[in-house]
TrEMBL record:
Pfam families: BPD_transp_1, OppC_N. Its main location: membrane. It is a multi-pass membrane protein. The chain crosses the membrane at residues 27-49, 90-116, 123-147, 196-218, 225-244, 256-277. It comes from Neorhizobium phenanthreniclasticum. This is ABC transporter permease.
Length: 292
C-alpha cells in the first residue's frame, strides 16, 4: 500500500464517522450556522458596513441606536455598526493566525517529542509544564508587553500562550500510534523518521488537533479582547472588539451601546466556536459515537 493510499484511507475513516455524527447532532449546526454568519459578515464588511469605520463626526457624538445609526455612535461620532463589522476582520484574523501558528509549531514539537522520546521529550515537556503554570492571559500580557502593541506582535503573543496545549495533545497519541504495527512495518522498509511522522502518524492524530484548534480559537479571541482592553492590542484607530470595549468603558453609564454590542459579538463568536468544538470532540470520541 502506498503512502498516498494509506493517508487517503485514514482520512476517509476519520471523516465519514465525524460527518455522520455532526449530522445527528442538530445542536452542532447552530454553532456552525452562527459561525458562518459571523465569518460572512467579516468578509463582506467593506460592502455591507453603512459608513467608514474611521470617519469622525463630532455632531453625532454618542448618538444612541436609531434608524440613522442602528447601533449608535461612539465618543468621536463613528458608526458603531461599521466598526463592529470591520473589527470582526481583525479580531477573527488574530484568532485564526495565532491558533494556526500555535497548532503548526505545537503539533510538530509534540509529534517529534513523542516519537523520539528520551531527553528531548523530557526537555520539551518540562518547558510545556512551565508555560502551562502561567495563566494564559498573564502569559499573553507579559509577552505582548515585551513585544509592543501591533497586529503582528499580538498574533505572536497569543500563539506563544497557546502552543503548549497543542504539544500535549499531539504528543500523547503519537506515543500510542508509534507502537502500532504499520509504524514498525514502515521502519523495516527503511522509511525515514520524518516520513513516518509526517505521512503515517500525523493523519492518525489530526482530528484531535483540529478539535483543540477550534476550542482554542475561542480562547484566542477572548485573549485578544482582553489584551486590547488593557492597551496591548492593535493600536487605534483600528477597530477591534476589545478596543471598542476599552474606548466605550469611560461612557458605560451614559452610552451603554459602546460596550454591550462588542461584548455580544465576542460572546456569540466564542459560543459558536465552543459549540463547534464540543460537537467535533463528541464526533471523534468512539464512546460518544457508539452511544448515539
Amino acid at each position: 500500500m502506498t503512502d498516498a493510499t494509506f493517508s487517503l484511507t485514514t482520512a476517509e475513516r476519520q471523516a465519514n464517522p465525524i460527518l455522520m455524527a455532526l449530522r445527528r447532532n442538530r445542536f452542532s449546526w447552530i454553532g456552525i450556522g452562527l459561525l458562518a454568519l459571523i465569518l460572512l459578515a467579516a468578509l463582506l464588511a467593506p460592502a455591507i458596513a453603512p459608513d467608514d469605520p474611521l470617519k469622525q463626526n463630532i455632531l453625532h457624538r454618542l448618538s444612541p441606536p436609531s434608524a440613522e445609526f442602528w447601533l449608535g455612535t461612539d465618543s468621536y461620532g463613528r458608526d458603531v455598526l461599521s466598526r463592529l463589522l470591520h473589527g470582526a476582520r481583525i479580531s477573527l484574523s488574530v484568532g485564526f493566525l495565532s491558533v494556526l501558528i500555535a497548532m503548526v509549531v505545537g503539533s510538530a514539537l509534540g509529534i517529534v517529542a513523542g516519537y523520539i522520546g528520551g531527553v528531548f521529550d523530557q526537555l520539551v515537556m518540562g518547558l510545556v509544564d512551565v508555560m502551562l503554570s502561567f495563566p494564559t492571559l498573564l502569559l499573553g500580557l507579559m509577552v505582548a508587553a515585551m513585544l509592543g502593541a501591533s497586529f503582528e506582535n499580538l498574533v505572536i503573543a497569543i500563539a506563544i500562550t497557546e502552543t503548549a496545549p497543542f504539544v500535549r495533545v499531539a504528543r500523547a497519541p503519537t506515543i500510542a500510534v508509534k507502537r502500532r504495527e504499520f509504524i514498525e512495518a514502515g521502519k523495516s522498509m527503511g522509511f525515514s523518521p520524518l516520513r513516518i511522522m509526517g505521512v503515517h502518524i500525523l493523519p492518525n492524530i489530526l482530528s484531535d488537533i483540529v478539535v483543540v484548534a477550534s476550542l482554542w480559537m475561542a480562547s484566542a479571541i477572548r485573549t485578544e479582547a482582553s489584551l486590547a482592553f488593557v492597551g496591548l492590542g492593535v493600536p487605534p484607530p483600528a477597530a477591534t472588539w476589545g478596543g471598542m470595549i476599552r474606548e466605550g468603558f469611560d461612557n458605560i453609564l451614559s452610552a451603554w451601546w459602546l460596550v454591550v454590542f462588542p461584548s455580544l459579538a465576542i460572546l456569540l463568536t466564542v459560543l459558536a466556536l465552543n459549540i463547534l468544538g464540543d460537537a467535533l470532540r463528541d464526533a471523534i470520541d468512539p464512546k460518544t459515537r457508539s452511544g448515539r
